[in-house]
Fold these 2 entries.
Entry 1:
Amino acid sequence: MKPFIDLKAQYVNIKEEILECINEILESSHYILGENVKNFEEEVKTYLGVKEAVGVASGTDALHLALRALNIGKGDEVITTPFTFFATIEAIVYVGAKPVFVDIEEETYNIDPYKIEEKITPNTKAIIAVHIFGCPANMEKINEIAKKYGLKVIEDAAQAFGAKIKDIKIGSLADIGCFSFYPSKNLGCFGDGGMIVTNSVDLAEKIRILRNHGSPGRYIHDTIGLNSRLDEIQAGILRVKMKYIDQYNELRRKKAAIYTNFLNDIVITPKEPLNAYHVYHLYSIRSKERDRIKEMLYNHGFPSVVYYPIPMHLQGALKFLGYKEGDFPITEAVSKEILSLPLYPELPEEEVFQISQIIMRCLQKNS
Ligand SMILES: *Cc1c(COP(=O)(O)O)cnc(C)c1O
């Protein structure tokens, strides 16, 4: 069986730089909140074009701390998408707020901004937009609604490092942007890591205190915080990989274009919104024959993965919210038909051809 993502293929290309950087950190014996985290935060600021960047322990913590910093909690409602990874919702529940779902767009699988207004109540405090699969959500419209109703906006950009709308980087388009550096993400470390970015100096200051036990200075605690720091080794690794991120995303786009070229007529292929730069964290096709395609690929030694088979509003842990099947028809249909194909920067083009051909043959036979 081929891997779904071959992380080793990336590692071997930068092995010397990585080992040298880890070795330096080990020799320095400075492992928490040192030069690497500080420099990585500076580099992310420059890359994304934001005023502030704060390294944290994971993408999940980034979302959690973002909500804390915005004073969102008990009695508040946060509007978001039911088609995301569970962490987006967990963060809302952690702070005691209530997730309120809005169905997604057929084209992008992102939250449909035109369905947001009908869900706004006097308790609504924020919108979390998720750039699913690396495809930019419609931030212009989302920000317009937020402005009209005085809501905060958080971008869950865990899958979208380097994505853009008109040359403006994803993550810089809302009050707070949240990133994950989980190993399989477009920019991934060798463990857990995350980052919060914002143009607000006040919010960044609050988050710096919250990520470190609510402590503005040694053994002074003004609030109950978290232990949620990005560690030096992960930051060092990310600084090495950051040099290649544009190249990695370009390679993803190139392979995505080959898939689309082959498959566009027989399945629903990913769409890139006007003026958007999609970074294909996942290349996901949609077909009524999803299960058959998956099986056929498997039989030929290629894995494929369903992201995500159960929408958030139908998850057991969220039963208390009272949603039921039928509440979000587009999300539910997509969950039944979506399939992510192998796609990573180093994926051999030969395999893109092979996978495409297996799918083409699979759909010819029974049509
Ligand atoms: C990966 C991911 C997260 C969580 O990030 P972790 O670093 O794994 O905690 C949150 N939201 C989305 C959309 C993700 O894909």
Note: The chain is about 40% helix and 15% strand.
Entry 2:
Amino acid sequence: MSERAGGHDSRRDELAAALAAVRERLAAACGAAGREPAEVRLLAVTKTFPAADVALLVDLGLVAFGESRDQEAAPKTAELADLRPGALARWEMVGRVQRNKVRSVVRWADRVQSVDSPRLADALAAAARSARAAGERSTDLEVLLQVSLDGDPARGGCLPADVDVLAERVAGSEGLDLRGVMGIAPLDGDADAAFAVLSQVAARIRGEHPRAVELSAGMSADLEVAVRHGSSCVRVGTALMGGRPLAST
Ligand SMILES: *Cc1c(COP(=O)(O)O)cnc(C)c1O
């Protein structure tokens, strides 16, 4: 066996083992919370990792992948389409979207989890409409509203008090499909308290917008806490893929 094939196989084994461990954590967290594992979707966050890794995850049965930078994701999604033609892969943007990147983002993203301002929502809606008119996408752009849980919207997310207005804006935008909310626990803060707030916001938004059922919460370090608070989508990078260079976390 060539060294290259050996490397490929061992990376596949490594990813398979990590995936099994993450699924075990999710099953245990669901068990502890009295929930069914099928209620919690696993989004593999593949930022900084190559398309070849995504291809191996596709082989292992994963279908949803998260990316945080357009510059990296746009070529990666194209490369995966070459590596696994016809694969069922969905891409979700989880990082901050610069408004000059919206035209590119709507070409590869099925969903943007990080919409946090009316200006960004308007820009994405316009870009999604023209991408559909140009045949570059066939569905509305699914949107989650990112809620700031650390009191500092400069780090992304809109304040809990502003989410309802933003939800109205997105729900009324042709080209966008409001599907729920997303939050990131504070870096050095209390994930339990933060996810409790997010879960309340999610229930409020769902009450007004019945399609907005997704509560995207939980990453490698805090997925158990998030599952306890009703997360329907955990975004897992490190626990699945391994460590990233610090600069890109
Ligand atoms: C990188 C990232 C993740 C994954 O984080 P890990 O701690 O590596 O699991 C999840 N959500 C967002 C928004 C991210 O940027």
Note: Strands lie at 41-45, 64-67, 90-93, 111-115, 141-147, 176-183, 214-216, 233-236.
